[in-house]
User: Fold this.
Amino acid sequence: MKKPVLFICVLFFLGYPHFLQAQSSFRKGNVVLTTADTLQGWIDYREWEANPTSITFKEDSSSTSVSVYKPGDVKSFDIQGFDRYFTATVTKDLRPVGLNELLNGFKDTSITDVVFLRALVEGDLGLFEFTSTKKYFYIKEKNNDYVELLYKVFLINNNNQLNESPIFRNQLMQWITTSKNAEKLSASLKYINYNAKDLSKVIRQLNGQTEALEKSKVNKERIVWYVGAGGIYSNLHISPQTEISQINYSASIQPLFQAGVDFLSKRSLQKLIIRVEIRAFSLSYAGADSITNSSSKKDFVSYHLKIRNVAPSISV
Assistant:
């Protein structure tokens, strides 16, 4: 019987992370429909690594009835304290940026698509992100269309080396030249990389925004406290052979308490968690044995062993 039970336990723990990942994670938010109606409720939020193609929404957190919305159904949706997405019609440059993809051959083209864009910076000048097979960034002035910030990669030296073409830096110049900090931003432009951090910083400066508001949004609910309780079962076996090792000790079943804090990564929190934890539990064993005293009579001796444990730990 032990082997099947052990096998089932191993399968459970191997599958448990995948089980957790598949679970819903509804957070408070709202959906603005194409009719301009706003629905308040709960959105299944996965901190998507790639932009979602649909979202699951329900009006009540305890309800089992859900609605599924695609980009054509809504104008925007907002997960309070986390992310906001806007439906947008955008052009996507399909040129790959990885060496293997470039070597495998591709068709250098672009397509128009209707997608959910994640808002990085909102203001007179907005910055938005789209992730599928690669990263895309879009800039938008109020009442204007979304403009893709272009970053291309080419193969040189007999296809052995990647050559970057940061077109987005030249695109940004049209807004930088009219900025109050034009000279400073122009000088730093050549060091700007095609990533959310660098581009967000530039757009905020162009908008005259501070980083405080953005940081407060990003870091909200990134520290999670928890407590727990359970039980611990153990046996005691002593070696080598001595008088006390021949005693049959009772098994120990004792309560276990734990508490800790998780420090979560800014996005895709399932990818990286730093956990600081402390556990407290006791182990208690009892046994009895008979010994022969000096008058050749047998006496019974009881043994009690109690171990108290406080175990702090840190894990990644």
